[in-house]
Design goal:
The chain is an all-alpha fold. The protein has seven helices and no strands. The longest helix has 33 residues. The relative contact order is 0.10.
Length: 169
């Protein structure tokens, strides 16, 4: 019995390494958004400016930094309803990214379509942000998302061509 199970397992085809890489990227994205959601939940019923100022001091950030001052100024605008919305949106996006990651790892067609739709829907915003202000981080994220988008479109198109070709025979 074990011999036949080992035989079946040894015949399984290996995972598509690019889908595994995209799944890992989506998993990291999900973890980032879970962290954002947890951070928003942590700031509920607290003064966000004071909390972030204490964090900046603890991490020994330069208090004269423009970035630190910008973040601390914007933190004063945060209140509990906004933090709840930020947390909810972050957790929802994390759940979607996690579903994409799991589906892509398992090589499910629905996950490929979902990732194409979601990634494609964010591309215009990413291009707009680059046109508004060019940074290496924004260009890098756009490049990665374009690679993911076009790879998945090609993968789905190739599978569909193969399906149609075998259907005609």
């Amino acid at each position: 019995m074990t011999r036949s199970l080992l035989h079946v397992l040894s015949k399984r085809r290996p995972h598509n390494k690019w889908l595994v890489l995209i799944a890992a990227y989506k998993l990291l994205q999900a973890l980032l958004f879970v962290s954002i959601g947890l951070g928003a939940r942590h700031l509920l019923h607290k003064d966000a400016g004071d909390e972030l100022s204490a964090l900046a001091d603890h991490l020994r950030f330069n208090p004269e930094s423009r970035l630190v001052n910008f973040i601390l100024d914007k933190a004063s605008l945060l209140n509990d309803p906004i933090l709840r919305r930020i947390g909810l949106v972050a957790f929802c996006y994390a759940a979607i990214s996690m579903a994409e990651a799991i589906g892509l790892y398992l090589e499910q067609a629905w996950a490929e379509y979902l990732t194409i739709i979601i990634t494609g829907s964010f591309l215009p915003w990413e291009i707009f942000e680059i046109l508004r202000r060019l940074t290496l981080v924004r260009v890098s994220l756009l490049a990665v998302n374009l690679l993911v988008f076009f790879y998945l479109v090609k993968l789905v198109a190739d599978r569909e061509r193969f399906r149609l070709k075998t259907k005609r025979k």
